[in-house]
Every structure is written in C-alpha cells, then in structure tokens.
Amino acid sequence: MSEPSRILAPGLGRRTLVLGAAALGLTAGCARAAAAELTVYKTPWCGCCGGWVTHMRRAGFSPKVVEMEDLAPVRQRYGIPFALSSCHTGVIGGYVVEGHVPPADVTRLLRERPKALGLTVPGMPLGSPGMEQPGGATERFQTLLLLDRSGRTRPFATHG
User: Residue 34: in which H helix or E strand, if any?
Assistant: First the structure.
C-alpha cells in the first residue's frame, strides 16, 4: 500500500498539507474581513485618523472616508458614550469601531461576531495604529468590546 503523502500528491507531505490548509483559512478570514464595507467618519483636520485609515488599507480593508465637522451625531447614532470616544468612528459589518483599534482586532471581531455594538480604544494611546511617535514611544492600551448603549464593556485585546 502506498504511503499517505503519496496518495495526496507526489512530494506533498501531511505537514505541508496542514500548513497549506491553515494558510488558506487565514487568507479566507482576511478576505471576508476586507470584503465588509468600512466607512470611517473623521474630521477634516485630524492627521492621526488618516494614519489609522492607512493601517486599515495595509491590512486589506477598503475604507470609505466621510469627513464631518462634528462627529457627536455619528457617535450618538451608534451608541458610543463620550467617555469611550476617540477621534474617529468606523462602521463595518454591522459593528462600530471607535478610535485607534488595531486592524487585527477588527478582523477578529468580524470573524467571531460577538453580540455587541463593536470595539473601542478610548482616547488616543501612543503607539496605537495612527498614533506612532518618531521616537517609538508606546503605552499599553486595551481594545474594549462595547456591549451595549449603556457603555458596558469588557476587554477584547491588550496591546503594548
């Protein structure tokens, strides 16, 4: 009887097959995340918001940017309390993404699909996507899962 790797294809071992399947699964996950439409609401004068949009593009998302003078109505519409706000608001796949949320966290959100409003990184933590510093200064920060309009959260990821 021939060995299992020969049944699959000449020269293709189990390890290669498993690694290839894992890579295909990751690629499919990224493609699904990138396929979801991302709308980013930001003010015209915010440079760090543009930096975050660049991070999202590099991660495979295709953000549509909408510039507004006042983001308070957007945050109110999507249930983001002032204490959990930042400088820009994204909407993707039925979720809100407030502030400098790392692209990997957005991908995970879309993959896991938790019952929540979305994600937030309150404030503007140094070293978060779009908030990089010339000297490389960073601070530890959390991405929070925004559970409901009352402002309840739970940690989703820790960075820095």
Answer: helix 14-35
